[in-house]
Design goal:
Blueprint (H helix, E strand, L loop, with lengths): L1 E8 L2 E8 L9 E10 L19 E2 L3 E9 L11 E5 L7 E5 L4 E2 L6 H5 L2 H14 L7 E5 L4 H12 L3 E6 L2 H7 L6 E4 L6 H7 L5 E6 L3 H9 L1 E9 L13 H6 L3 E4 L7 H5 L2 H7 L1 H6 L6 E5 L4 H9 L6 E5 L5
Parallel strand pairs: 9-10, 9-12, 10-11, 12-13, 13-14, 15-16
Antiparallel strand pairs: 1-2, 1-4, 3-5, 3-7, 3-16, 5-6, 6-8
Helix pairs in contact: 2-3
């Protein structure tokens, strides 16, 4: 089968398409024919926890949806031909392995591109909004970098939960597009200068939960924008800024809660623990159409490099998805 690998070459990460053996499902695994796989910016950033320097070629892609081709020992509740989606390593390939603990049945109402855009991003958002963020109906969510894949998914999920959403972006056109997804207030800025506007919008209260989807350059401003007993989710650092000042007086006086959202150091069992809750709480929303990923574009399997370039250029709003190979 064909599969993409990431190579560390010429001071950067380069994609190459390889012919590799089709994997065999081991204990607790499903083998799927990949029909769609979502792109995520962090998986292409060296040192972001997914691709450390050195060590040769590495499988790339972290979420996929497709048909079950084979079932490993000890797998219950799945049959060949079932539609499955989930987080998985090596998703940019004709076939990939899913851990049974991470596998989620694709609702009939979802096509392949939308199913392929769900597993990683919305599991991250479930962690941020529900498990750690404890967002409630009537509260205000602030998303710094709302037009990113995680940002758009957080917007959609928060609206389904009954929250008000404020988002920042450097593009007025992108913010306008997100109003159709429920964005209540769009702040057009790429600078850490939005806290005053957040307080004005919330009648001086601030944001109950903030998501920093940009990095260290926005961290201090997100803290400043929080309400009393506010929470801040640190989800990535696409700006490359890994250090930020922390106002200890504000942290102390406002009784704030700051938390990270990452799978970098989690065991497979720890990564799988939120999946049952996600299935119970959010999968019915996808099935009924109350939640639906915003797919910006779908590109053919052979055009992964083009899809990666479009994502890194910030041309998209929501998710870019790679279609499965046409080869059978």
């Amino acid at each position: 089968m064909r599969a993409y690998r990431m190579h560390d070459a010429d001071g950067g990460l380069q994609l190459q398409l390889h012919d590799v053996p089709q994997p065999e499902p081991g204990a607790g695994q499903l083998l799927i024919r990949v029909r769609a796989a979502g792109l995520n910016r962090g998986e292409f950033i060296a040192g972001h926890g997914l691709h450390a320097r050195g060590g040769g070629a590495k499988a790339v892609g972290t979420e996929a949806a497709g048909e079950v081709l084979a079932i490993g020992p000890g797998v219950d509740g799945w049959r060949v031909g079932d539609r499955a989606m989930g987080r998985c390593p090596g998703a940019f390939a004709e076939c990939a392995l899913l851990d049974q603990r991470e596998a989620i049945a694709v609702p009939p109402s979802l096509d392949w591109p939308h199913a392929g855009a769900i597993p990683l991003t919305f599991m991250v958002v479930y962690d941020m909004l529900v498990l750690q963020g404890r967002l409630r109906a009537g509260e205000t969510l602030l998303v710094a970098g709302v037009t990113s894949g995680v940002g758009v998914s957080a917007l959609q999920a928060a609206k389904a939960m009954g929250a008000t959403v404020i988002g920042t972006s450097g593009s007025t056109a992108k913010l306008d597009r997100l109003r159709a997804e429920g964005l209540d207030v769009g702040l057009c800025t790429r600078a850490p200068d939005f806290a005053d506007a957040v307080f004005k919008t919330t009648d001086g209260r601030g944001a109950d939960l903030a998501i920093d989807a940009v990095g260290g350059s926005m961290f201090a401003e997100c803290v400043r924008a929080l309400a009393f007993q506010g929470r801040l989710a640190m989800v990535g650092y696409v700006d490359g800024v890994l250090r930020a000042e922390l106002d200890l007086e504000t942290l102390h006086a406002k009784r704030l809660r700051l938390f990270g959202v990452s799978n970098k150091l989690r065991t497979p069992q720890q990564r799988a623990e939120p999946v049952p809750g996600f299935k119970a709480d959010w999968l019915p929303l996808f099935a009924r159409g109350r939640l639906r990923p915003l797919v910006d574009r779908v590109l053919p399997f052979e055009r992964l490099a083009e899809a990666k370039a479009a994502m890194e250029a910030g041309e998209h709003v929501g998710k870019i998805v790679l279609a499965g190979s046409d080869d059978r």
